[in-house]
Amino acid sequence: MSEESDAPLSARIMARLVQEAKDNGSDRRLGTLARLKEACDDIASGRALELARKEGWSMTYFHPHRRLVALSVHEYRKLKQSLSPRTEPPGPTKDTIAHDEGLSDYLRARDGERNGARPPARKGTRARRVDEILLEKLDFNDQAAVRTELEDGRLARLRYNTLAAFFHKLSGVDLRDRENFSFEDVAAEVRGQISGDDRHALSSLVARLHDDRVLAGMGLQYEAHSGRIMTDLGDLVLITASEMRVLVRLSGLNPDSLKPIN
To answer: What pTM, to 2 d.p., does this model score?
Structure first.
C-alpha cells in the first residue's frame, strides 16, 4: 500500500487541490489553500482558542466540542487579519468555502477526522458550563490536570453512592443524610439486626418446620408446592410462603436445597 493511500482523507484532498493549483499556475489558489489548512490546523490544535483568549476575541467557534465549519475558518481568518491588517491576506471566507467544492470537501474531511479527538458531548448544562470555564480560563496543561481531578471526583462520587446504597440496604443507615458517620455506627446497626447465634437458631427453626414428622405431631403439614405450613384439617395457615422465604433468607440457608423430612 502506498504512503499516499495511508494518509488521512483530508491530506489526500489537499494534495490533489495543491497539485491542481500548481498545474494551473495559480499562486492565489495556493495561498487560499495554505490559509485554509493553517486555520484548520490551528483550530484543531487549540492554538486558535489560545490566540482568541489572548486577544480578547470571541472564542465561540474555536471550542474543541464544536463542529469545524466554514464559519470557524472565517472567524479565525478575521482574527488573524485584524492582528496584521497590512500583511495578512484575507480569506478564505465562509462564502468562498461554501461555493468551492474542493475547499468544502477538505473542511468536511478535517471535521470528520477531528471527531475522534473531540470530547464527548455531555447532556448536562452544568457539565457544559464546566467545560466552557476550563477552556476560557486555563491553558491546555492546566486543563488536562483539572479534567483528571474532575474525573477522579466523579468516580469517587459514584463509588460513594454505591457504598451508601449498599449500607442503607444492609443496615438501614443512610450515609447520604449524615454529615458525619463512622463504620462503627453501621456495624452497630447490622449487629442490632441479627447475630451469628440468631442465624443458627433460625436455621434450626427452618429445619424443624420442614420436618413432616415434627409437624404431624402438632396437626400441621408442610405444603411443598406452595411453601406454606398449615393445619391438616381445614385451610388454616400457620406460616405463609412469604414468611417462610424470609425465615430461610435470614437463616442463611439455600432454599433450593431444603426438602421436607419424611
So the answer is: 0.48
